[in-house]
Amino acid sequence: MLSKHAHYFTSSPDWQTLAPSTSAPPDEELPLTPQAQRDGEAKWAAAWAAQHPTSEYGYGTQVQAIQTRDGASINLKIYEPLHDSVDTNRDKRLPILYVTHGGGWMQGSAVTEEVFFLRELLTHLPRFLVVSVEYRLAPENPFPIPFNDCWDALLWVVKESEGLGGDSERLYLAGSSAGGSLAAALAVEAHEHFKISGLILNVPVLCHPQHRPPFCENGSYDECVGGLLSGAEMFEIWADPFTAKPIGNDQRLTSGKIADMYVPDKAHGDNWRASPLRADLKKLPPTYVFVAGQDPVRDEGIAFAEAAEKVGARIKMHVYQGVPHTFAEFPELETTKRFNVDMLAAFTDLLDEAQTQQTQQRSGS
Asked: Which of 58, 150, 249, 311 has the fewest Cβ atoms within 10 angstroms?
């Protein structure tokens, strides 16, 4: 069935020009083991980081190990402005940006999120204290472990914020793709515990395809055949490609007996922490959602924004017609340039709002 949002699929002119040079040869489209994918990604991420050191945009980094609830150790990559000493004076503490990286819950890193949007953000915005969490990955560590790791790390950041020179009253969450799913779920979870000043969701994965609520269109999975991320490949992120059986127009689509990589326990399939589209969206902080038109998860991103607005959440959405899930990795695209401008404007808006609220609170008005 054709999605009512299908008009967003039509390729943008600049992507039409670039797309042929980015398509993978057929023999490279076969699914790899998660570890093989991680190994390949680690090589290009290391090369990219060497060419784009954080010092270029005025930040130094350190790695902090913390312990999770089950005794495991995970790392946080902390970005701090260079030439600044930690200042615990409340008026001089930095806003905190807490980042959950993408990668389908089974790969990705702090560096891949730098590629997606963080480098551009930190180059042009006022100083932040940034914490990017390296949560444990599926399928070795399925749901709820990645979410729990991110929540435990967020609690640590809030607790230690003063010593880090961060202002926990100006705490922002951001994530791309699967990291957007984690960020959205964290924002809802935090509602009962502490304030989140803003949420940025970049091409977020927001619902297990077998647990979409009735109000969510699903045509974008069917529309995306081939290209940088097909509906089949997105489904394989949820399903084990080594045991599922192919069906449908794209022979990598899967159904029947599903061995989910992220959510192997069917009882958790509709859990809002795994599928934030099913959460109580009234609990969202001010939120911006960025959606790609040629993306399998396009329709759930739009449904999320519409459903949140319907229940009174403050949410704004940008949809970029005719570009794929990972379009922001291509800086030469006019769409990417527009996305960067929109992302910077969103953060500026959220920062200004939080600053205004702080000033009003301190003046007693």
From this structure: 249
Res 258: pLDDT: 31
Backbone angles phi, psi at 316, to 5 degrees: -130, 145
- Strand partners for 97: 130, 172
Residue carrying structure tokens 């995306």:
224
Residue 136: which H helix or E strand, with range?
none
Which residues share a beta bridge with 288? Answer: 200, 316
CB 254 within 8 A of CB 247: yes
To which residue do tokens 């590629």 refer?
Answer: 115
Span 291-317, pLDDT tens digits = 999 999 999 999 999 999 999 999 999
Give me the phi and psi of 94, to 5 degrees please. Answer: -90, 145
d(CA 325, CA 332) in angstroms, rounded, equals 16
Do 168 and 96 form a contact (C-beta atoms < 8 A)?
yes
Q: What mean pLDDT is predicted for residues 330-343?
A: 95
The mean pLDDT of 329-347, rounded to a whole number, is: 95
Residue range 188-245, pLDDT digits in tens? 999 999 999 999 999 999 998 888 899 998 789 888 887 778 887 787 776 653 333 3
Region at 82 (left for phi over 0; alpha for psi -120 to 50; beta for the rest): beta
3-state SS of 275-297 is CHHHCCHHHCCCEEEEEEEECCC
